[in-house]
Amino acid sequence: MAAPGAAHPGRPGAVVVRPANEVTWDDLAAVFGDRGYPATCWCQRQVLGDRVWYATPPEERARLLHEQTSCDDPDAPTTSGLVAFLDGEPAGWVAVGPRPSFRRLRGSPVPWTGRAAGDAQDKDDPDVWAVACFVVRAGFRGLGLTYDLARAAVDFARARGAAAVEGYPILDPSGAPITWGENSVGSVQALRAAGLEEVARPTVRRRVLRRDLRPRGA
C-alpha cells in the first residue's frame, strides 16, 4: 500500500505514505529523531497510559514501538501506524489502530464526554479506530504532511475493516498557536480534511471528530 499525497504550495516534491511494517526501522527512527519529545515518547504515551509510560525508559519505549509497527516485515499481519516520505526521505508518522489499543484514551474523559445519546460508545469496541498521534520530522514541518497522514490513516482504517475512525485534536479558541508537543494529537483542520466531523467538545480546547466508514449496525 502506498498512498500519494496531494500537492502543497510550499512542498518541494511528492509524498508517499506507507504502512510502517513496509518500511525500515531506521526510516521510522529518523522521523522521531534523537532529541526532543518524540525521541523520548516514541509514540507510547497513548498506548501505555500515563502511569506505565512514566515508569518506562525511552529505550524500552523505542523497543515497544519497533515491536508494534513490525518494521522491516512487509508480510506482518498488523502494524500500528503509517510513515510519510517526502521525495523518498522519511518525514512523518501517524499512529492509527483500534481505539482499545490506546490505554490513555480509555482512561481519559476526552473521547467520552459530551457525546450524544445515540453516539454512546463501547470502550472495548475494536471496530472503532483512533488516529492517536502525529509526528513530523524536524525540517519537514509546515508542509502539510499531517493532512496526507490523516487521509492515509482513514484509508488504512477502512481497508482493515474499521466501522469508524475518530480523532481528538486540540483547537485553541483564542487562536493561539499549538505547540508541537500538544499538536501530536492532530489538528482539527487536518482531520476535517480527511472527512472527520465534530461530534463533541469535551473541554474548551479539545474536540472529538469522527467519520463512520460503514452504516452503523452493519
TrEMBL record:
It comes from the Bacteria. Keywords: Transferase. InterPro entries: Acyl_CoA_acyltransferase, GNAT_dom. Transmembrane segments: none annotated. GO terms for molecular function: acyltransferase activity, transferring groups other than amino-acyl groups. This is GNAT family N-acetyltransferase. PROSITE patterns: GNAT. SUPFAM superfamilies: Acyl-CoA N-acyltransferases (Nat). Pfam families: Acetyltransf_1 (PF00583). Residues 15-214 form the N-acetyltransferase domain.
